[in-house]
Specification:
The chain is of the alpha/beta class and about 210 residues long. Helices cover about 45% and strands about 10% of the residues. It is built from 9 helices and 5 strands.
């Protein structure tokens, strides 16, 4: 079993697999699933910002094509979803927190912290949001949490090691910056270029952080 993965739920494994798939396709490595009250996965999504197309209702090729948005877009408007649970690999940004509230999903779990764009504590109160409280848990403080956040850092390290995203992590969460660097040294992008299945690369990559 992968180091640090022994206590991962099925939906959490699915999120990480989706994040890996996104990275293999050239998009930001973030994956999300929605589960219902019984714990059954009812919607999935991954980041598709740098992809040309996606099957509806998901979107691609736009800065709005975040994993959470693509997962939540699968929930129809005929009912409310307070008993549903969004699970995502990385702390949601303002866009995705807004999408979560608008979708009426009542619970959020995220694996990795995002000190650059994470917005779980900054969504402003309004009468609308006050009537739709969201129970939030995260980030994980273990190897899995470091890995999920490190994936994000590694993506931006490749785009420019002096960029703002990397700089903020190095300043505010140097442990996560180091996790991203460790993943790059472990051959993250070489493995992604080969599009190997997540089950095959997970042990090596989780061990790297």
């Amino acid at each position: 079993m992968s180091p640090g993965a022994a206590d991962l739920s099925g939906p959490e494994h699915a999120c990480l697999e989706l994040a890996w798939e996104a990275l293999c396709r050239g998009s930001l490595p973030v994956g999300a699933v929605v589960v219902d009250a019984a714990g059954t996965v009812v919607a999935t999504g991954r980041n598709r910002v740098f992809e040309a197309a996606a099957a509806a209702p998901e979107i691609a090729g736009t800065r709005l094509a975040h994993a959470e948005v693509n997962a939540l877009a699968r929930l129809g408007p005929q009912r409310r979803y307070e008993d549903h649970h969004l699970i995502v690999t990385l702390e949601p940004c303002p866009l995705c927190m807004g999408a979560l509230v608008m979708s009426t999903v009542g619970r959020l779990t995220y694996l990795g912290a995002d000190p650059y764009a994470g917005a779980t504590t900054v969504l402003g109160p309004t009468p609308y949001t006050a009537r739709l409280p969201v129970l939030i848990t995260g980030p994980r403080g273990d190897r899995v949490g470091r890995f999920a956040a490190g994936l994000h850092v590694a993506f931006y390290l490749r785009r420019g090691p002096a960029g703002q995203v990397v700089s903020v992590h190095r300043e505010l969460r140097p442990d996560l910056g180091e996790a991203g660097e460790a993943l790059v040294r472990a051959g993250l992008f070489e493995l992604a270029a080969r599009a190997l299945p997540w089950s095959q690369v997970a042990p090596e990559l989780l061990a790297a952080v």
